[in-house]
């Protein structure tokens, strides 16, 4: 896949990994390569030649206008200060950067800085684009716009996204890496990672008293993660005994509740992981 998500608790090593890839922190060994699907060849990626980066806060120079900032990067990367008006105009339009052209960097909000930095990154035509917490603070509409943008360009650009937004990661990422204390704890598709972190999940529906059942499950299944999801309850955990659980809910619910095994949601899997490492 072309979209890799890196997740983990605070301090797991996500930002350190990004800085190492960008050459901002020295690495002990290793190289980063990307495979050209059309030619079947692998190429070593160099930060200054092949990569773009959008930090969590955005990174726009404070004392120049947005348009001059865009021109600067176009001159550096495309050898044409007006590239953004030509071949790069589509990204300027899509991210609605033109209304910001006259503003100084210091006058931009955090969201505006990230939009500008995202546009500049795409204008550099990178092979590999890294984002650090790009969805932090975004509303539903802005989140959808950014995920659509990344997905649309993932045919030609490889992306690495560090995020705490498990709902977005689950929809966006082709592959997920979970970091823990600087090491890879799990890697694979969202489904594979979710199962690796918390095993299995069960969905309980048609309950007569949700709150009472939540309390009972918390007491009798202390090793499981218990969450309410709408009118249903979800239990997640590696040692979840479905037969024992079914017998339990039949005994304690008069409404004839239903139980079915489900794939753990990534958010539940990460919550289970965090619950375990904090104990």
How would you describe this protein?
By secondary structure, the protein is of the alpha/beta class. The chain has two domains: 3-194, P-loop containing nucleotide triphosphate hydrolases (Rossmann fold), CATH 3.40.50.300; 200-263, 2-Layer Sandwich (Alpha-Beta Plaits). The protein has eleven helices and twelve strands. The strands form three sheets. A six-stranded mixed beta sheet has the order 4-5-6-1-7-8, with helices on both faces. Helix 8 packs parallel to helix 11. The longest helix has 14 residues, at 110-123. It is elongated and about 75 Å long.
Low-confidence stretches: none
Mean pLDDT equals 89
The CATH topology of the largest domain corresponds to Rossmann fold
| Sheet/helix structural class | alpha/beta
Spatially, the strands of the biggest sheet line up as 4-5-6-1-7-8
Number of strands: 12
Reported CATH architecture of the largest domain: 3-Layer(aba) Sandwich
The major pleated sheet works out as: 6 strands, mixed
How many domains, in number, for the residues?
2
Distance between the termini: 35 Å
* Rg of Cα set: 23 Å
Q: Helix-strand pattern, N to C? A: EHEEHEHHHEHEHEEHEHEEHEH
Shape: elongated
Percent range of helical residues:
25-40%
β-strand amount: 15-25%
Q: What is the tally of helical segments?
A: 11
- Give the class-level CATH name of the largest domain: Alpha Beta
């Amino acid at each position: 896949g072309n979209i890799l998500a890196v997740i983990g608790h605070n301090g797991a090593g996500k930002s350190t990994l990004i800085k190492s890839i960008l050459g901002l922190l020295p690495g002990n060994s290793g190289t980063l390569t990307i495979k050209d699907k059309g030619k079947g060849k692998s190429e070593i990626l160099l930060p200054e030649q092949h990569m773009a980066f959008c930090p969590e806060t955005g990174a726009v120079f404070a004392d120049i206008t947005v348009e001059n900032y865009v021109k600067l990067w176009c001159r550096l990367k495309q050898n044409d200060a007006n590239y953004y008006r030509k071949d790069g105009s589509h990204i300027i339009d899509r991210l609605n950067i033109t209304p910001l052209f006259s503003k100084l960097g210091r006058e931009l909000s955090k969201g505006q800085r990230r939009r500008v930095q995202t546009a500049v990154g795409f204008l550099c035509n990178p092979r590999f684009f890294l984002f650090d917490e790009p969805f932090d603070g975004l509303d539903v509409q802005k989140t959808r716009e950014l995920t659509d943008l990344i997905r649309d360009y993932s045919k030609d650009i490889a992306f690495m996204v560090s995020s705490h937004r498990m709902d977005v990661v689950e929809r966006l990422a082709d592959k997920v890496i979970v970091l823990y204390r600087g090491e890879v704890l799990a890697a694979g598709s969202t489904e594979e990672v979710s199962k690796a972190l918390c095993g299995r999940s069960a969905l309980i529906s048609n309950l007569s008293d949700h709150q009472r059942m939540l309390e009972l499950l918390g007491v009798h299944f202390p090793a499981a993660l218990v969450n309410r999801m709408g009118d249903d309850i979800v239990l997640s955990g590696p040692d979840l005994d479905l037969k024992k659980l079914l017998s339990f809910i039949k005994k304690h619910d008069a409404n004839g509740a239903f139980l079915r095994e489900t794939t753990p949601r990534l958010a539940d899997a990460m919550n289970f992981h965090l619950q375990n490492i904090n104990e």
